[in-house]
């Protein structure tokens, strides 16, 4: 879509500077921990050293003697109000504080309320807890074995550790296709447990006003409106009513999915504020964040791909064990316990596919949330993109040729996939060709052949991924029954400036800028004159929040539709002012003019003024609109990435020499911001591919519980990303946009893994599980006799 | 716990405070002086969100005791803008889109500012090495490097 606006107006396609930046570069952001209210108390949390243990006794006596400690809250305290358990977003249950037993290491056991954070920490040290350890179940496969200890003893009649079984596709048809296949490749792969580790941890300030009966919670949340409803549902029985609950999500220091769930800390802080009648702040530290907040992934995948001899893919069969920890606290739409994992047929035209996932309880923290991706899409993309390379290796085909042979062609869109999705638009070959040209693919293959002769290890990896984002059509998508629409309320003021409020919440994506650009494009009001607000449930319209790349596809669309409603009314006012019929008016960005007489016109600013000063008799005054947008379909961003790695035979270190990312997110609102999102996404794609993993020993002790062990990429490991684009608009989105915040996190890991395997393929290596650490590579080199 | 009287100059203004031995510099800045631009992102001195300049040198203020700042000069992100004019490094981050959520930004700015004082023409490798103790989860660092290069050019 060619923009209709000048750079000064700043509509679609302009790289205007961000409206957020002036406060952030001055240190004038307002994050949760910056909030300091009069009389505010601090909360700190006692956590379990055991992964599974009965609580014999909690002794608060010494803690209560620490000067400044006001209260110690335990599960027994909350039980009096029936608040010791809460529902998860997946309709499972989660302890707020335990009464009988703890289920994972670092689980919340008690909370100390004190006058300042140091005293609260002193109080935590002084709380004495006696535990009686229970058998620990860490391995999800063992958890499913007969005779395994049943972990959820709180669930009456529960006889095993299975949470759910979910499947999609045609099992019999797929089995038949496999039986008839020329070639079948199989691979088990593990997508490890990782953590989003936003640089700001989670926290809140809960402030209950006893006189007004109003609870305000300033909180690190990506979905303030849904959280308000959850609070009202969970605590309705103790008198919290939804109109008396205000959730404020102030500036958020990165979310990536980790700030969607309701963590026990939030609920305890609210309970403490309600009981004590003073504001209570809780901000977790980094170790609490890594050890107790919801994790992502942890999928044990067994994949099989069937094909013809010429490389034509015919069928895909996937069986997965999903380790959800002790409760299913994922943040998936309620009908999708395995998220959108069934996008696993990727960019390819499979005739048949079948996928099944079993969710399992273990003694680990709860979760299964996203790590900067739409519900389980990264797991799906990694599986299919690795399997494509394994098939290419089996058939001795170039992985680019194999992909080209199997891409869904551009003229087949909208495309109905074997697992039931209707892809909106795509040109997969276009993106791959562009990436190959940009990186010089043929030359790289020649260089690789020469280096192999000299014993040097160089690999080239491709990933041609497709995403499924922007949930979603309300007929399929809801969270706890609340439909996944999103919203915009747009007010144009008498002087032609506007305020636009949305149901989403930016965590760094730049909504204050891009949403203003959408309004600018639709109305011609300069983006500089559009104030965007989000995150305050008292003022913003209800929406489901920002995650799964849904802000532009859903709330952005709501912004465009609200602006179009305003334009409809503006047209009536313009007709009145120009004394012509509406049919005689033509819209040109920022004004209506009379057909055939362009000098007779009214600007949107003149019309706005008239809406309050000279509106037609019989028409309501004002110039406002609200839109709740229910998208007709999801959007399907895609891209092709090519990664070149060199491997040090002495250390096993993988160095990314070049990485070219060609993305297609449909029409672009702000190219500068889109490029920034891709850079960040690529880095969060590289992280699990090469560095990050949270693992547990057999006693359930976490092995990556601080930044000492959990390796978030620094500027040293991160390469200079090279980006480019193709533009294939979404046919159903009002602006033709698709969403981009997570594409690169989804697409990058298989490109890197494929490159490393490609570097070692001639040694007989076919697969390496991520993260591909120097240790893993060095051990392979040693085993193959290729280490230096 | 023992208390100590300290005198610290922050962004050119002298402050006196009575502090516990264990009080961290970052908490003195954030909670006593209400300079909340300096952020806390970890507890193991890895993330660098709390970076400030102590006598002109970048330090992680989560690993400096307030008493260690006694008699010394501290510069925080709030001290970069002078007389209503942004420091070149602040302008660089805006121009080159060197920030997204903004949480690591104050620390990045202070580290970069110190780098440019000691090395007015850093190479890309030198910039990357200088900011390697500051974690950013949003930007992928490419535009942060460009932001520092933008500022270096303006300051030369």
What does this 3D model show about the protein?
- The complex is a heterodimer of chains A (788) and B (156).
- Chain A is of the alpha+beta class and 788 residues long.
- Among the domains of chain A are: 422-466 and 635-788, Aldehyde Oxidoreductase, domain 4; 486-629, Aldehyde oxidase/xanthine dehydrogenase, molybdopterin binding domain (Aldehyde Oxidoreductase, domain 4, 2-Layer Sandwich), CATH 3.30.365.
- Chain A has 19 helices and 33 strands.
- The radius of gyration of chain A is 27 Å and the shape is globular.
- By secondary structure, chain B is an alpha+beta fold.
- Chain B folds into two domains: 3-79, Beta-grasp domain (Ubiquitin-like (UB roll)); 88-155, [2Fe-2S]-binding domain (DNA polymerase, domain 1, Orthogonal Bundle), CATH 1.10.150.
- Helix content of chain B is 33%, strand content 17%.
- A five-stranded mixed β-sheet of chain B has the order 2-1-5-3-4, covered by helices on one side.
- In chain B, a hairpin with a 2-residue loop joins strand 1 and strand 2 (13-20).
- At the A-B interface, helix 1 and helix 17 of A face helix 1, helix 2, helix 3, helix 4 and helix 5 of B.
């Amino acid at each position: 879509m060619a923009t209709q606006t000048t750079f000064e107006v700043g509509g679609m396609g302009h790289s205007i500077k961000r409206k957020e930046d002036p406060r952030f570069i001055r240190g004038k952001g307002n994050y949760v921990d910056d909030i300091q209210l009069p009389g505010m108390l601090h909360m700190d949390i006692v956590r379990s050293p055991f992964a599974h243990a009965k609580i014999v006794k909690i002794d608060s006596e010494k803690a209560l003697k620490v000067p400044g400690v006001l209260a110690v809250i335990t599960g027994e305290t909350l039980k009096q109000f029936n608040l010791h358990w809460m529902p998860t977003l997946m309709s499972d249950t989660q302890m707020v504080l335990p009464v009988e037993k703890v289920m994972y290491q670092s689980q919340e056991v008690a909370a100390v309320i004190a006058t300042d954070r140091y005293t609260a920490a002193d109080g935590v040290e002084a709380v004495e807890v006696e535990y009686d350890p229970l058998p620990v179940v860490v391995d999800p496969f063992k958890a499913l074995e007969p005779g395994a200890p049943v972990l959820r003893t709180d669930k009456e009649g529960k006889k095993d550790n299975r949470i759910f079984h979910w499947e999609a596709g045609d099992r019999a048809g797929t089995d038949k296709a496999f039986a008839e296949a020329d070639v079948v490749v199989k691979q088990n792969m593990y997508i490890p447990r990782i953590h989003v580790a936003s640089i700001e941890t989670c926290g809140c300030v809960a402030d209950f006003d006893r006189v007004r009966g109003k609870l305000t919670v300033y909180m690190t949340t990506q979905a303030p409106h849904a959280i308000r409803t959850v609070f009202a549902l969970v605590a309705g029985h103790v008198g919290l009513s939804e109109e008396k609950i205000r959730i404020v999500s102030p500036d958020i220091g990165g979310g990536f999915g980790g700030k969607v769930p309701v963590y026990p800390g939030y609920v305890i802080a609210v309970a403490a504020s309600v009981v004590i009648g003073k504001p209570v702040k809780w901000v977790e530290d980094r170790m609490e964040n890594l050890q107790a907040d919801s994790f992502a992934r942890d999928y044990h995948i067994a994949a099989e791909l069937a094909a013809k001899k010429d490389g034509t893919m015919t069928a895909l069969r996937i069986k997965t064990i999903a380790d959800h920890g002790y409760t299913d606290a994922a943040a998936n739409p309620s009908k999708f316990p395995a998220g959108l994992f069934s996008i696993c047929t990727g960019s390819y035209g499979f005739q048949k596919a079948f996928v099944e996932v079993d969710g399992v309880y273990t003694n680990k923290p709860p979760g299964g949330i996203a790590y900067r991706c739409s519900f389980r899409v990264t797991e799906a993309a990694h599986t299919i993109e690795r399997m494509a390379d394994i098939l290419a290796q089996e058939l001795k085909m170039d992985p680019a040729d194999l992909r080209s042979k199997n891409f869904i062609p551009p003229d087949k869109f909208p495309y109905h996939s074997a697992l039931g999705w209707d892809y909106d638009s795509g040109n997969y070959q276009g993106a791959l060709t562009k990436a190959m040209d940009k990186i010089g693919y043929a030359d790289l293959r020649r260089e690789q052949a020469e280096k192999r002769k000299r014993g040097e290890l160089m690999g080239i990896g491709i990933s041609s991924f497709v995403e499924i984002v922007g949930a979603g059509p309300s007929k399929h998508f809801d969270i706890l029954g609340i439909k996944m629409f999103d919203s915009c309320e747009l007010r144009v003021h008498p002087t032609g400036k506007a305020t636009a409020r949305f149901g989403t919440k930016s965590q760094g994506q730049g909504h204050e800028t891009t949403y203003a650009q959408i309004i600018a494009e639709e109305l011609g009001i300069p983006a500089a004159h559009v104030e965007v607000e989000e995150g305050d449930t008292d003022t913003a319209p209800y929406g489901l929040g920002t995650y799964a790349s849904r802000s532009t596809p859903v709330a952005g669309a709501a912004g465009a539709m609200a602006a179009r409603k305003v334009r409809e009314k503006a047209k009536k006012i313009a007709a009145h002012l120009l004394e012509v019929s509406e049919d005689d008016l033509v819209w040109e960005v920022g004004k209506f003019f009379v057909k055939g007489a362009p000098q007779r016109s009214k600007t949107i600013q003149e019309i706005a003024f008239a809406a309050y000063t000279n509106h037609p008799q019989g028409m309501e005054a004002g110039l406002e609109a609200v839109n709740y947008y229910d998208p007709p379909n999801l959007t399907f961003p895609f891209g092709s990435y090519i990664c070149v790695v060199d491997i040090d035979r002495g250390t096993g270190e993988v160095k990314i020499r070049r990485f070219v990312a060609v993305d297609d997110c449909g029409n672009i609102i702000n190219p500068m911001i889109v490029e920034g999102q891709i850079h960040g996404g690529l880095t969060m794609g590289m992280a699990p591919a090469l560095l990050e993993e949270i693992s547990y020993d057999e006693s359930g002790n976490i092995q990556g519980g601080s930044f000492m062990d959990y390796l978030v990429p620094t500027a040293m490991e991160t390469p200079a990303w090279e980006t480019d684009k193709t533009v294939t608009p979404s046919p159903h989105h009002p602006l033709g946009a698709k969403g981009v915040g997570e594409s690169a996190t989804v697409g990058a890991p298989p490109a890197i893994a494929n490159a490393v395997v490609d570097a070692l393929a001639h040694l007989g290596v076919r697969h390496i599980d991520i993260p591909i650490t120097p240790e893993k590579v060095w051990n392979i080199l040693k085993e193959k006799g290729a280490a230096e | 716990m023992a208390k100590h009287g300290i005198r610290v100059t922050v962004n050119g203004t002298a402050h006196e405070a009575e502090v516990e031995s264990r009080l961290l510099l970052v908490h003195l800045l954030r909670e006593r002086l209400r300079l909340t631009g300096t952020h806390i992102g970890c507890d193991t001195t890895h993330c660098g969100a709390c970076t400030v300049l102590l006598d002109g040198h970048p330090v992680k203020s989560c690993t400096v005791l307030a008493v260690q700042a006694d008699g010394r000069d501290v510069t925080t992100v709030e001290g970069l803008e002078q007389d209503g004019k942004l420091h070149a490094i602040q302008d660089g981050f805006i121009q080159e889109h060197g920030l997204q959520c903004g949480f690591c930004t104050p620390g990045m700015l202070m580290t970069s500012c110190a780098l440019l004082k000691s090395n007015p023409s850093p190479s890309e490798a030198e910039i990357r090495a200088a900011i390697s103790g500051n974690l950013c989860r949003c930007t992928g660092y490419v535009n942060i490097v460009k932001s520092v290069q933008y500022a270096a050019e303006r300051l030369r």
